[in-house]
């Protein structure tokens, strides 16, 4: 597709607004869902950290920070709060005592189960409303966003306008 600059700007704004709105709605509902199940002491950043830890089972602080796309200095207080609240535990590496691994406690595993119930409910409801073709198209567009973002990040000159007609 080729766009005139004004059309591209409108399209970009619409897409960004929809993306942000959908993300906020999902997070608001997740917060309410967790609260209904007795989890009221976690921030969304802490819930996100718990989700990543659950996927990796036992993870170093550096690997978790990388996965979450944040710095170790930003992650450290999140992990400290989670440890204090009883959601995660740290374990020193047997061979290199400088390295600590983070894993979920039973309490953290319970939050993961509750969070997955929310995600499963959301996906199940969406699945009832879309066709397989629509779903495949959506995944394709997400793949394109991811790969095109990587292409742009790799370019030295980020001022290139792409396929825009003036």
Descriptors for this entry?
6 helices; Arc Repressor Mutant, subunit A; two-stranded parallel sheet; 5 strands; three-stranded antiparallel beta sheet; 166 residues; single chain; mainly alpha
Summarize this structure briefly.
The chain has helices spanning 5-36, 44-56, 61-68, 72-85, 106-127, 132-154; strands at 3-4, 58-60, 88-92, 100-104, 164-165. The chain is mostly helical.
The tally of structural domains comes to 1
Spatial order of the strands in the main sheet? 2-4-3
The assigned CATH architecture is Orthogonal Bundle
Order of helices and strands: EHHEHHEEHHE
The whole-number mean of residue pLDDT values reads 85
Largest sheet: 3 strands, antiparallel
Can you tell me the CATH topology?
Answer: Arc Repressor Mutant, subunit A
- Tell me the number of helical segments per DSSP (H or I, 4 or more residues long): 6
> What would you call the shape?
globular
Uncertain residue ranges: none
Alpha carbon gyration radius: 20 Å
Instruction: Give the C-level CATH assignment.
Output: Mainly Alpha
How many β-strand stretches? 5
Structural class: mainly alpha
Distance between the termini: 14 Å
CATH level-4 homologous superfamily: Winged helix-like DNA-binding domain superfamily/Winged helix DNA-binding domain
Tell me the strand percentage band.
Answer: 5-15%
Helix content: 55-70%
